Amino acid sequence: YRAVVAVKGDRIMAIAPALDVAAEQVIDGQGRVLAPGFIDVPTHDDINVIRMPEYLPKLSQGVTTVIVGNCGISAATATMRGEVPDPMNLLGEQQHFIYPTVEAYAHAVEAARPSLNVGTLIG
Asked: Is the pTM of the predicted complex or chain greater than 0.85?
């Protein structure tokens, strides 16, 4: 529906057909769509969010959150001693599996500071 959106800082404060509020800046979005960030659930981005924290391919599509650890495979809690078997090789190569615990994986994600929000399942 057509509406006016009031934003303060990085938060949406109000959405309504009309708002009676003062604004520091007005952006004319006539003929455009304002959409929330999309959540990409069925991903295998476990390693990518650490290796490529800017993750422009996702951001350019409007994705702001990824859920990793899908299909029964995850980088968290997995270490490899040899060749990475199917389907684990969807996530990366042997040297990428260095997170023996969920906590270790979470610390690596936090340190990488990815541009996306990351939620994890445990494969």
From this structure: no
